[in-house]
Amino acid sequence: MDAAAELLAAYPALRSVPTARFAESAAHLPVVSVSSGTELFAEGQACQGFPCVLGGQVRVARGSADGRELELYRVGPGEVCVVSAGCLFGGAPMTAHGHAVGTTRLAMVDRDTLLEWSDARPWRLFLMGLMAERLAELTALVEAVAFQRLDQRLARSLLGHGPTVQATHQRLADELGTSREIVSRLLGRFEAQHIVRLGRERIEIVDLPALRQLAGGL
Hints:
alpha+beta; Jelly Rolls; 2 domains; 3-stranded antiparallel β-sheet; 9 helices; 8 strands; 45% helix; elongated
C-alpha cells in the first residue's frame, strides 16, 4: 500500500482534497516505521513536520528538570498531535517529547502541504475538531494536576484501567507526573486499607466502592 492509500485509510477526511493534488503531494512525504520506544521528537527541537499516524501509537509527554515527566496524551491512527501542529504553524521549538508505543508507522507532513490540504473544508473542519477535543483533554489534565489531590488522581487512574491493572508503579507515576516512590507509597496505603492487592506489575482492585469514594464519588 502506498503512502496516499495509507493516509486515506487512516484519515478518511483527506478524500475531500482534490485527488490529483493529494496523490502528488502524498507521494513525496517521508513515511517511517519505528520500533517501540523510539524518540520521534524532543523538547526544544525544531518541528520536523505534522505526524499522521498510520499504525501504532505516539506517547506525548512533558519532562521536568528533575527527570520526571507528565504524559499529555497519545496519538493513534486518525488522530492529531496538537503540540506538533502548534509548533509547526507557529515556528516555535517543540514543547514536549514523543516516543513510539509499540511498532509505529507515520507520515511526516510538512507545513506547506498541510496548509494546502486544509483548503479542503471537510479536512480543515476535521483537523479543527480533533484539535479542540485534544485541547479539552489537556485542560482537564491541567485541572487535575493543579487542583486534585494525588491520591484522588491515582484512584481515578486505577478506575480507568479496569478491575486488574497491568502496570508498573513507574508507568503510573509517569501518567500522574510524579515520582515512583510517591505512587508506591500511596498504593501501599491503598493496600493497607484493603482497597487493592498488589502484585508484580499487577494491581487488583478488591474494594471498588471504596476506590470510587476515594476518587471522588465516581
